[in-house]
Amino acid sequence: MKTDTTDVEHRSGDVPLPTNTIFDLLLDQRRRYVLYYLSRRLGAVSIEELTEAIELREGTQRSDSLERISTGLHHNHLPKLVDANVVKYDPTTERVERLPAASKLDPYLELAAIDDLSQRARCS
Prior knowledge:
This protein is mainly alpha-helical. Helix content is 56%, strand content 8%. The chain is built from five helices and three strands.
């Protein structure tokens, strides 16, 4: 069986998103959830809203969880997503917005979401 590993490109003129970048972006569960959450929202969302959504999803009960999640977003996840041109982050307003290029991740993101849900169900 031969697997096509060419870069993902949906419309002519689009800059392709390299396959390695796709898998790197989707490697981390929290980053996948950021992409999934933004795909279900119109426009930009605040870091606070995103952080609270992640905390709720993860079921974190510690007093420092919001700060830890926010720090991870600021220093790890958002820079990777911004560098890949799939999200826009405005540090002044602390708002994050999904960019059109993120739609190239949707087929992979849907598969990952199904897998994430089934793993959560097994752990519960």
